[in-house]
Amino acid sequence: MAPRKLLYVALFVIASASLAQGGTAHKGSQPPDRLLKFYLQQQFGVNELEMVPEARAPVNGTNTGFGLEVVYEFTLTAKKSPQSKVLGYARGTAIAVNNTAASTTFFVQNVIHYDDGNLRGTLSQQGEAIFASLPWEFAITGGTGAFRNAYGFNVGRFISSTPTPNGNLITTYYEASVFLNH
Protein backbone atom coordinates (compact mmCIF):
# COMPACT_ATOMS: atom_id res chain seq x y z
CA MET A 1 0.00 0.00 0.00
CA ALA A 2 1.40 3.39 -0.92
CA PRO A 3 2.05 5.98 1.78
CA ARG A 4 -0.44 8.17 -0.08
CA LYS A 5 -3.27 5.91 1.13
CA LEU A 6 -2.08 6.49 4.72
CA LEU A 7 -2.33 10.19 4.00
CA TYR A 8 -5.87 9.86 2.66
CA VAL A 9 -6.95 8.06 5.81
CA ALA A 10 -5.28 10.66 8.01
CA LEU A 11 -6.94 13.46 6.05
CA PHE A 12 -10.35 11.78 6.18
CA VAL A 13 -10.10 11.18 9.90
CA ILE A 14 -8.80 14.66 10.62
CA ALA A 15 -11.35 16.34 8.36
CA SER A 16 -14.17 14.46 10.06
CA ALA A 17 -12.92 15.35 13.54
CA SER A 18 -14.13 18.37 15.44
CA LEU A 19 -11.67 21.23 15.82
CA ALA A 20 -12.24 21.45 19.57
CA GLN A 21 -9.53 23.25 21.48
CA GLY A 22 -7.05 21.10 23.35
CA GLY A 23 -6.89 21.68 27.10
CA THR A 24 -3.90 22.95 28.96
CA ALA A 25 -1.45 20.10 29.07
CA HIS A 26 -0.79 20.29 32.83
CA LYS A 27 -4.27 20.77 34.34
CA GLY A 28 -4.57 19.96 38.03
CA SER A 29 -0.94 18.98 38.62
CA GLN A 30 2.31 20.75 39.29
CA PRO A 31 3.38 22.98 36.42
CA PRO A 32 6.01 21.46 34.14
CA ASP A 33 9.66 22.53 34.29
CA ARG A 34 9.34 23.42 30.60
CA LEU A 35 6.23 23.97 28.47
CA LEU A 36 7.21 23.78 24.81
CA LYS A 37 4.72 25.10 22.25
CA PHE A 38 5.27 24.39 18.57
CA TYR A 39 3.63 23.54 15.26
CA LEU A 40 4.44 20.33 13.41
CA GLN A 41 4.55 20.71 9.61
CA GLN A 42 3.76 17.20 8.33
CA GLN A 43 4.69 17.22 4.63
CA PHE A 44 3.12 13.99 3.39
CA GLY A 45 4.22 12.95 -0.07
CA VAL A 46 7.74 14.30 0.55
CA ASN A 47 9.10 13.50 4.03
CA GLU A 48 7.74 10.03 4.74
CA LEU A 49 8.62 6.62 3.36
CA GLU A 50 6.72 3.34 3.55
CA MET A 51 8.89 0.82 5.41
CA VAL A 52 6.56 -2.15 5.88
CA PRO A 53 3.50 -2.86 3.72
CA GLU A 54 0.14 -3.58 5.31
CA ALA A 55 -0.22 -7.07 6.77
CA ARG A 56 -4.00 -7.04 6.42
CA ALA A 57 -6.05 -5.19 3.84
CA PRO A 58 -8.06 -2.13 4.85
CA VAL A 59 -11.52 -2.79 6.26
CA ASN A 60 -14.52 -1.29 4.48
CA GLY A 61 -14.56 2.47 4.88
CA THR A 62 -10.79 2.88 5.45
CA ASN A 63 -7.74 3.24 3.21
CA THR A 64 -5.01 2.06 5.62
CA GLY A 65 -4.46 -1.60 6.35
CA PHE A 66 -3.27 -3.07 9.64
CA GLY A 67 0.52 -3.17 9.98
CA LEU A 68 1.43 -0.41 7.52
CA GLU A 69 4.57 1.33 8.82
CA VAL A 70 6.06 4.60 7.66
CA VAL A 71 9.20 6.43 8.71
CA TYR A 72 9.15 10.24 8.61
CA GLU A 73 10.89 13.53 9.28
CA PHE A 74 8.72 16.60 9.85
CA THR A 75 9.62 20.21 10.75
CA LEU A 76 8.73 22.02 14.01
CA THR A 77 7.99 25.74 13.67
CA ALA A 78 7.29 28.57 16.12
CA LYS A 79 4.06 29.63 14.37
CA LYS A 80 1.51 27.87 12.21
CA SER A 81 3.08 29.17 9.00
CA PRO A 82 5.59 26.66 7.54
CA GLN A 83 7.82 29.68 6.77
CA SER A 84 8.05 30.73 10.44
CA LYS A 85 11.14 30.12 12.58
CA VAL A 86 12.23 26.46 12.54
CA LEU A 87 12.55 25.02 16.07
CA GLY A 88 13.62 21.53 15.08
CA TYR A 89 12.39 18.22 13.69
CA ALA A 90 10.33 15.17 14.63
CA ARG A 91 11.79 11.94 13.27
CA GLY A 92 10.27 8.53 13.80
CA THR A 93 7.82 5.84 12.78
CA ALA A 94 4.06 5.31 12.75
CA ILE A 95 2.41 1.89 12.50
CA ALA A 96 -1.29 1.27 11.85
CA VAL A 97 -2.13 -1.05 14.77
CA ASN A 98 -5.92 -1.08 14.55
CA ASN A 99 -8.38 0.06 11.95
CA THR A 100 -12.13 0.19 11.85
CA ALA A 101 -14.55 2.08 9.63
CA ALA A 102 -14.64 4.80 12.31
CA SER A 103 -10.90 5.40 12.73
CA THR A 104 -7.38 4.11 12.45
CA THR A 105 -5.11 3.82 15.50
CA PHE A 106 -1.41 4.45 15.00
CA PHE A 107 1.47 3.53 17.31
CA VAL A 108 3.87 6.46 17.07
CA GLN A 109 7.46 6.47 18.27
CA ASN A 110 9.72 9.41 17.53
CA VAL A 111 12.41 11.81 18.68
CA ILE A 112 11.85 15.55 18.75
CA HIS A 113 15.03 17.51 18.03
CA TYR A 114 14.38 20.93 19.61
CA ASP A 115 16.43 24.14 19.50
CA ASP A 116 14.79 27.53 20.09
CA GLY A 117 18.09 29.35 20.67
CA ASN A 118 17.81 28.97 24.47
CA LEU A 119 16.93 25.30 24.93
CA ARG A 120 18.58 22.57 22.87
CA GLY A 121 18.14 18.82 23.11
CA THR A 122 15.96 15.87 22.19
CA LEU A 123 12.76 14.39 23.59
CA SER A 124 11.78 10.77 23.05
CA GLN A 125 8.05 10.22 22.82
CA GLN A 126 5.68 7.39 22.05
CA GLY A 127 2.07 6.33 22.27
CA GLU A 128 -1.04 5.34 20.41
CA ALA A 129 -3.07 7.99 18.69
CA ILE A 130 -6.47 7.99 17.10
CA PHE A 131 -6.22 11.20 15.17
CA ALA A 132 -10.04 11.48 15.13
CA SER A 133 -10.03 11.97 18.92
CA LEU A 134 -8.91 15.47 19.72
CA PRO A 135 -6.72 16.23 21.42
CA TRP A 136 -4.30 13.31 21.24
CA GLU A 137 -1.43 12.71 23.63
CA PHE A 138 1.99 11.08 23.58
CA ALA A 139 4.19 10.13 26.55
CA ILE A 140 7.60 11.79 26.82
CA THR A 141 9.90 8.98 27.88
CA GLY A 142 13.34 10.59 28.03
CA GLY A 143 15.57 13.28 26.64
CA THR A 144 19.05 14.66 26.10
CA GLY A 145 20.74 18.05 26.38
CA ALA A 146 18.49 20.59 28.13
CA PHE A 147 15.93 17.76 28.48
CA ARG A 148 18.19 15.11 30.04
CA ASN A 149 16.12 12.64 32.10
CA ALA A 150 12.87 14.25 30.92
CA TYR A 151 9.42 12.78 31.30
CA GLY A 152 5.98 14.17 30.66
CA PHE A 153 3.42 14.33 27.89
CA ASN A 154 2.83 16.08 24.59
CA VAL A 155 -0.73 17.06 23.62
CA GLY A 156 -1.54 17.78 19.97
CA ARG A 157 -4.46 18.93 17.86
CA PHE A 158 -5.18 19.42 14.18
CA ILE A 159 -4.86 22.94 12.73
CA SER A 160 -5.04 22.65 8.92
CA SER A 161 -4.41 20.61 5.78
CA THR A 162 -3.17 22.23 2.57
CA PRO A 163 -2.73 20.43 -0.78
CA THR A 164 0.76 20.83 -2.27
CA PRO A 165 2.20 19.74 -5.64
CA ASN A 166 3.79 16.69 -3.94
CA GLY A 167 1.08 15.69 -1.44
CA ASN A 168 -0.41 17.53 1.52
CA LEU A 169 0.93 19.73 4.29
CA ILE A 170 -0.82 18.94 7.58
CA THR A 171 -0.19 21.41 10.40
CA THR A 172 -0.75 20.34 14.00
CA TYR A 173 -0.19 22.27 17.23
CA TYR A 174 1.56 20.75 20.26
CA GLU A 175 2.13 21.64 23.89
CA ALA A 176 4.79 19.47 25.49
CA SER A 177 4.76 19.45 29.30
CA VAL A 178 8.32 18.50 30.20
CA PHE A 179 9.34 17.52 33.73
CA LEU A 180 13.00 17.06 34.59
CA ASN A 181 14.57 14.75 37.16
CA HIS A 182 16.92 17.13 38.94
Chain-wise SSE layout:
Blueprint: H1 3-16, E1 34-44, E2 48-52, E3 69-77, E4 86-99, E5 104-115, E6 120-130, E7 136-145, E8 150-164, E9 167-180
Antiparallel strand pairs: 1-3, 1-9, 2-3, 3-4, 4-5, 5-6, 6-7, 7-8, 8-9
Kindly report the spatial arrangement of strands forming the biggest sheet: 1-3-4-5-6-7-8-9
User: What Rg is obtained from the alpha carbons, in whole angstroms?
Assistant: 16 Å
Tell me the domain tally.
Answer: 1
Q: Strand portion, in percent?
A: over 45%
Describe the overall structure.
By secondary structure, this protein is mostly beta strands. Helices cover 8% and strands 55% of the residues. It has one helix at residues 3-16; strands at 34-44, 48-52, 69-77, 86-99, 104-115, 120-130, 136-145, 150-164, 167-180. The chain has an eight-stranded antiparallel barrel with strand order 1-3-4-5-6-7-8-9. β6 (120-130) and β7 (136-145) form a beta hairpin. The longest helix is centred in the first third of the chain and has 14 residues, at 3-16. Residues 1-26 have low confidence and may be disordered.
How would you describe this structure in keywords?
182 residues, mainly beta, AOC barrel-like, 8-stranded antiparallel beta barrel, 1 helix, 8% helix
Describe the structure concisely for a colleague:
Keywords: Apoplast, Secreted, Signal. The chain has 182 residues and is mostly beta strands. It contains one helix and nine strands; from the N terminus they run H-E-E-E-E-E-E-E-E-E.
